[in-house]
Amino acid sequence: MAQLGGQPIFIMKEGTERTRGKDAMENNIAAAKVIAEAVRTSLGPRGMDKMLVDQFGDVVITNDGATILKEIDVQHPAAKMMVEVAKTQDSEVGDGTTTSVILAGELLKRAEKLLQQKIHPTVISEGFRKAAEKAVEILEAMSIKSGIDDMEGLKNCAKTCMSSKIVSESRDMLADICIGAIKAVAEKGENGKWTADIEKVQIQKKEGESIDQTTLIKGIILDKEVVSPGMPKIIKDAKILLLQSAIEIEKTEFDAKLQITSPDQIQQFLDEEEHMLRTMVDKIVNSGANVVVCQKGIDDMAQHFLSKANVMAVRRVKKSDLEKLSKATGGVIFTNLDDITEDKLGFAGIVEERKVMNDSWIFVEECKDPKSVVILIRGGTELIIDEAERAIHDALCVVRDVVEDQKVVGGGGAPELETAIQLRKYAQTLGGREQLAVEVFADSLDIIPKTLAENAGLDQIEMLMKLRASHQAGNKFAGLNLETGDVIDNMMADGVVEPTIVKIQAIKSSTEAASMILRIDDVIAGAKSAMPPGGPGMGGMPPGMGGMPPGMGGMGGMPGMM
Question: 111 with 514: CB under 8 angstroms?
């Protein structure tokens, strides 16, 4: 709305809300701080879990930052940006989501004090940018080289990542599974660098047994059954034919009429159809294949012929599963039965139909050099299995990060504290108000060791002082052992290791989010459009049918988040 000669002029739609200047900044920073506070208690090995219940009553129990923020349906635009920080961290490096959100919240909390001292947001953003660049340099310099051959480093990284999860009791065994999976799918590029695609590690879940029964299968699991009961249920030294086309007589695309004048002609027609199917099956059998995995259908008559030839067949397999089978067994996917040659068939040591709980699954195992593997997760309940899957996903990402980036640092708050100490020295070399912003950035990094100590029931200030003293004495990897409550001079020797790239990404994404939120001084919220009677998407329904019962929606009780 503008004033012109005392007459109000409406520029925006009636009902539009506008918050300007200091109020807008304070509102955005408060929303971001609430989000950071919501996940703060879940950091570290002594962190707690959150139980999230959605409007349909579905329950999720987790301490994974990205999952928590995805499940709580935030409405505030600044809070949504904090959720994006966690999503970015998760998709980029797979771990450190809680760290990045807590860091962004702390940067904004401390920047608020600079704003109150009349320091311009652009100056603070510039200082944060310089501090983040310097922090990345410091982390790179303090890193220790690792890689795919550093078995101890990989295992310690995976165990550290899972120490805060529900599966921490079984982390030794699960770490070995994750390393085995990544090593199987890792490939060395022409430039000598390793790459590992997490998509090639398939995760299957089934209740029953316990987490300790989780296994790595060097092959593939198909959630299908053998098509005919007459076929063998287990085949050793399997030669696998991967087929995209159907083993059926295709119907003609145009209308066709057959004029039959005698019963003999019907028999000839049926005999010819049978002969065509028999020819198809003969081509498969003559190629040496004893297992057929087909993307489309298999005719009943063809199933009968395959059973007689002692060939196991599976039909209607997803295209993605067929591609994974190709990577695992080394077989070529055929579209035409005439092209089949024995040397292009896939190989597996054993193909077997097994009953897991109430479902029959086909296990393709003991492949020679599988470039696609499966982790079969077992657990007492569905909630435990889901959280175990999140933990294993994080551990796979961490192992992949070390294999690809080949750098690690000690954990337990050590890298953040060392970076903070060196940033304070760097701040002395800067002039003007940017120096204040860099010092604030350094102070914000202390939130990680402080939160770790607080979650373990230790005194934050006392622990921070002891840590700083150890770092000043030259122990760059001095961190907190939260099991004993002591300061350890070398977290690497204690087996607490994290990939450098996780720390770098957390600093980058939290700095960018904090800078963006700081620079907003005007929030213009458009008026909400009127809804049809009965709530969104309910137009035309009888009154009383739409919407949810009161008190069922959202995550009530979290101020500033809705």
Answer: yes
- Check residue 531 and give its pLDDT: 47
Token couple for 271: 């005999």
Which sign does the torsion angle of CA 377, 183, 200, 400 carry? Answer: positive
CA distance linking residue 219 with residue 200, whole number of Å? 11
Structure tokens of 530? 């009127």
Q: Give 134's pLDDT tier (boundaries 50, 70, 90).
A: very high
CATH code assigned to 151-218+378-405: 3.30.260.10
Can 264 be counted among the known catalytic residues?
no
- E-assigned strand segments in 36-126: 50-53, 59-62
pLDDT at 530: 52
Quote the strand ranges of 151-211, DSSP E: 187-188, 194-195, 201-207
- Compute how many other C-beta atoms are within 10 angstroms of the C-beta atom of residue 152: 10
Which single residue is written with the structure tokens 């294949």?
A: 289
In the residue annotation, 98 being an active-site residue is answered as yes
Q: DSSP character for 368? A: S
List 62, 67, 88, 98, catalytic entry: 98
pLDDT at 556 over 50: no
Burial class (CB in 10 A: 0-12, 13-18, 19+), 358: exposed
Backbone angles phi, psi at 154, to 5 degrees: -60, -45
Select from 406, 442, 405 the least CA-distant residue to 423: 442
Neighbours of 12 (CB within 10 A): 12
Say which CATH class 220-369 falls into. Answer: alpha beta
How many whole angstroms separate alpha carbon 250 and alpha carbon 539? 45
Give the active site residue among 64, 90, 386, 401: 64
67, 88, 97, 419: the active-site residue: 97
The length of the chain, given as a count of residues: 562
Q: How far apart are CA 348 and CA 237, in angstroms?
A: 6
Question: 484 an active-site residue?
Answer: no
Residues 6+ apart with CB under 8 A from 536: none
Indicate if 73 belongs to the active site: no
Domain regions of the chain by residue span: 16-145+410-523, 151-218+378-405, 220-369
Per the listing, tokens 């983040």 go with 132
pLDDT at 190 over 80: no
Of 413, 479, 489, 490, which is closest to residue 445 (Cα–Cα)? 413
Catalytic, out of 394, 401, 405, 494: 394
pLDDT beyond 60 at 56 = yes
pLDDT tens column, 439-487? 999 999 999 989 999 988 888 888 889 888 998 888 888 888 887 888 8
pLDDT in tens, 7-39: 666 676 766 777 777 788 888 888 888 988 888
Q: How far apart are CA 279 and CA 282, in angstroms?
A: 5
Q: Which CATH superfamily is domain 16-145+410-523 in?
A: GroEL-like equatorial domain (1.10.560.10)
